[in-house]
Amino acid sequence: MGLETYRRKRTFATTPEPSGTVSPEGGHPRFVVQEHHARRVHWDLRLEMEGVLRSWAIPKAPSLDPVDKRLAVLVEDHPIEYGEFEGVIPPGNYGAGTVMLWDRGLYECLEGDPAAAFQQGKMTLVLFGEKLRGEFHFVRTKRNAGRDWLMFKGKDDYVKTGFTPTGTRSVKTGRTIEEIRADRDARWTPGAPPTPAPVTADAKPTPVLADPTSARVPADPFPGPFKPMLAQTADLPFNRAGWLFEIKWDGARSRGSFCRRG
Description:
Elements: H1 4-8, E1 30-37, E2 41-49, E3 52-58, E4 70-74, E5 87-89, E6 97-109, H2 114-120, E7 122-129, E8 133-140, E9 148-153, H3 177-182, E10 244-248, E11 251-255
């Protein structure tokens, strides 16, 4: 399917979504599920396949209960980079709303080649995610020109009857959808760099923030009073909103919420 439709629907000067490229395949394919609070709340399932993320919009969240048959509507392919996207798509853009990375992991297609199984209209996938695990069945229907699929859980050790997705947090940042929506850093603020005022002989130039062309630098680097972040000790890594961890070869570094310096 490619990325032509994906790019045609978006203006990348006004949305933080990646334009991306078709990527070479290799290793175990990945999957992601993004909770998307747009005009209507839905969940976007994306499977790495043929160098892109083949994508379905699911009006109700994927379920670990085999009783739940979920409608999954095939939409345009997305770039692989979209699997890391979390943030706010501004009003006026396609899919405007808040996106949370709800689940991610690897998957295996029991039919063999997932692209061939997709073309046949029947896929049996084993998901190795943080929330979704075990066998899932995907079956294409004849409705909506073949774009409507059904997704339902297979019967295995990962079944959870009465499964509900409420009260979930991002598997990437630990934030709720409300925290992502309210986070200033998650918002896209494009715009041309300001025109500098003319400098007269008896006037001093106005200091300019570093990297004034950056679309993510706020107009006011200090929007209000703030408390400096102090160091904390912990025995183990944890999941907490506002914190990220990254691996360093000579140790570990943790980051909490911070204020950009001018």
